[in-house]
Write a structure and sequence with these properties.
mainly alpha; 2 helices
Amino acid sequence: MTPGTETKASFKSTELWVFLAAVAAVLIASDRVGANSAGVDVFRADTAWLYITLLTIGYVVSRGLAKAGSAWRGSNERR
């Protein structure tokens, strides 16, 4: 067996799919939530993009922690 990392590729992890679903949910919610009775947009685009930025920071940090916790090991050390 060849040595490898302990973490999966990002497209194979559930974190990526949850991140993409959360981004889609924020965008859809921002589009669907309209103005209140006073005519003020309740969920403006700048707020939606702030939430997407925060989600992205969380995703990058979680992937970074996952990669930081893995070490390049030979197969004989994984028993």
